[in-house]
Design a protein that fits this description.
Strand content: under 5%
Structural class: mainly alpha
Number of strands: 0
Shape: flat
Radius of gyration: 62 Å
Helix content: over 70%
Low-confidence stretches: 1-9
């Protein structure tokens, strides 16, 4: 008789170490705890994401140190940059869900792969600059030297007045020297004429001597005037040359400082580009570094794409399905409540309309009754007024009759009296 034996595996409790790196993978820990077979996969993904953030922090430190030459600023930005890259990677892997169909999953992951490539570029460049720092420094030295020479040539063209003034001073000195030579030559001729060593052979101060002496005096006077004027002009030119040289040297010194300090991030990127154009080995190494970072950055996505669906993925789908059902129920419930509410509002409006109609009918009835009462009161008032008028007329007619009767009686009495007297 065969006996079935069930192998009971010991329950694995997720340690804090596992817990942290599993969270770095973007997994829902309350679901992952129920899926021990998926621990290692998400632990590995989280480790890659975390180390990518560390590497981004280091490259960010290098990049900012090249720009600001300050350890504190570079350290603060490096920490910030590492956290930013970490959470971008965390978002990428957390939002990528394992689908049942590979094509739909791949299409869904394409934008995240593109983002991973961009992040690889951003992370790899500073590290690439650090790895080839010595070669880049050599290129920068050459570039700085060429820039200094070109700028000096440009400044020389801008301050070409210095050379013009120098040439002018040189010409003035040459004129003085030529005049001095002419004077000295004439002086020698005068001495020879006085000593009899001239072609005339006459010793003493004869006509030729006096002629030469007059010419010598005139030339010497012109030379003094030329020296005076030229010395003043040379002095002014020297002052102008000194001023221009100060300006020129200031410009060159300032530009030299700028050129010497132009070894920031952009200059190093340009130097790296020049280095790759000149050296195919450096270019190949740069491409290998870039591809390596792309693989590192895309590794969590590739792991999710190439791995099979596990219990964790089933639980994710189950939870999302239950949430969708619950949401749809709440939506239907809310819709029913909204419809009931609208129906109640409609009934309320109908009741209000009916009440208004009844109120309007009662109002019309009251108005009609009021009109009847008013008409009755008007008739009664008219009746009373007419009665008063009739009574007044009757009283007036009675008084008139009484007056007429009395008059007639008086007339009869008068006639009787007259008859008696007769």
């Amino acid at each position: 008789m065969e006996s079935n034996q069930t192998i009971i595996l010991p329950k694995f409790k997720m340690s804090l170490f596992y817990h942290f790196f599993s969270w770095c993978s973007g997994a829902r820990l309350y679901l992952l705890k129920s899926c021990p077979t998926d621990y290692n996969k998400y632990f590995g993904i989280g480790m890659i994401v975390f180390l990518t953030g560390i590497m981004a922090s280091i490259t960010g430190f290098f990049a900012l140190y090249m720009i600001f030459d300050s350890y504190w600023i570079a350290a603060v930005f490096g920490v910030f940059w590492g956290i930013l890259i970490f959470f971008l990677d965390w978002f990428i892997v957390a939002s990528l869900k394992k689908e049942e169909k590979f094509i739909s999953e791949f299409l869904f992951s394409v934008p995240r792969i593109i983002l991973a490539v961009l992040l690889a570029v951003v992370i790899s460049k500073p590290l690439e600059l650090k790895l080839f720092e010595k070669e880049i420094n050599a290129v920068l030295v050459n570039e700085k030297t060429e820039s200094s020479i070109k700028y000096k040539q440009l400044v020389d063209k801008e301050f070409n007045q210095i050379e013009i003034l120098k040439i002018e001073n040189e010409n003035l000195r040459k004129d003085i020297k030529n005049k001095e030579e002419q004077r000295n030559l004439l002086f020698d001729m005068i001495i020879k004429e006085a000593e009899g060593r001239s072609p005339t052979g006459i010793i003493g101060k004869g006509p030729v001597y006096r002629e030469k002496k007059t010419e010598f005096d005139r030339l010497n006077q012109n030379l003094d005037i030329l020296k005076k004027n030229s010395s003043l002009q040379i002095k002014l030119n020297i002052q102008k040359i000194e001023e221009l040289n100060i300006q020129k040297n200031t410009r060159i010194d300032n530009s030299s400082k700028v050129i010497q300090n132009s070894d920031g991030l952009l200059a190093r990127l340009e130097a790296m580009s020049i280095l790759k154009d000149k050296n195919s080995t450096v270019s190949m190494a740069s491409w290998f570094i870039f591809i390596l970072f792309i693989l590192i950055e895309a590794a969590p996505i590739l792991v999710k794409l190439l791995s099979r669906r596990g219990p964790y993925d089933e639980l994710i789908d189950k939870e999302e399905y239950e949430k969708q059902i619950e949401y749809k129920k709440q939506k239907i419930k809310a819709k029913v409540l909204a419809n009931n509410y609208l129906e109640l509002l409609k009934q309320k409006d109908e009741l209000q309309i009916e009440a208004e109609k009844r109120n309007n009918k009662n109002l019309v009835k009251h108005i009609e009754e009021a009109k009847e009462d008013i008409n009755k009161k008007v008739v009664e008032k008219w009746k009373e007024k007419e009665l008063e008028t009739v009574l007044t007329d009757l009283i007036e007619s009675d008084s008139q009759l009484e007056n007429s009767t009395e008059t007639e009686n008086n007339d009869d009495y008068t006639e009787e009296s007259e008859n008696q007297l007769i």
